[in-house]
Amino acid sequence: MELADEIVINAPRDRVYAALNDPEILKQCIPGCEELIMHSPTELEAKVVLKVGPVKARFTGKVTLDTTNAPGGFSLTGEGSGGPAGFARGGADVTLVEAEPGVTTLSYTAKAEIGGKLAQLGSRLIQGTAKKLSASFFEKFAATFENEAAA
């Protein structure tokens, strides 16, 4: 499964990059996130509860960041297990471009592979859920900066 999207955020690129590396902000924005622990600047561990169609599961996973291109972007890889519900693994490339002063365009491409009961649900349901979850994350993430500006 592949996903790609782009969102405009009303904040400078450096602030967007810093927020994408702030575990407290990420925890608030990741749908179903119960816990997010940053073990090092490039290693995170998460516990997330998700419902995909009739399957609800608690996933535990690890994410590794490659910040070589910071603050213009980064890559991440990760994998998670949802017990009997299955597993997911994949990666993403994120690019941050300051389109104009104080406005950043965030674009990403992601690939994921799933297995177990989740894989039996059908690619259309999985793809739709993945798009909905990513849209939810980025809406909450962008709102973080809007709320900050309003305060």
From TrEMBL:
| InterPro entries (UniProt xref) | CO_DH_gsu, START-like_dom_sf
Tell me which domain of life the UniProt entry assigns to the organism this sequence originates from: Bacteria
Q: Which Pfam families match?
A: COXG (PF06240)
> Coiled-coil regions in this chain?
none
Gene3D superfamilies xref list: 3.30.530.20
User: What name goes with this protein?
Assistant: Carbon monoxide dehydrogenase subunit G
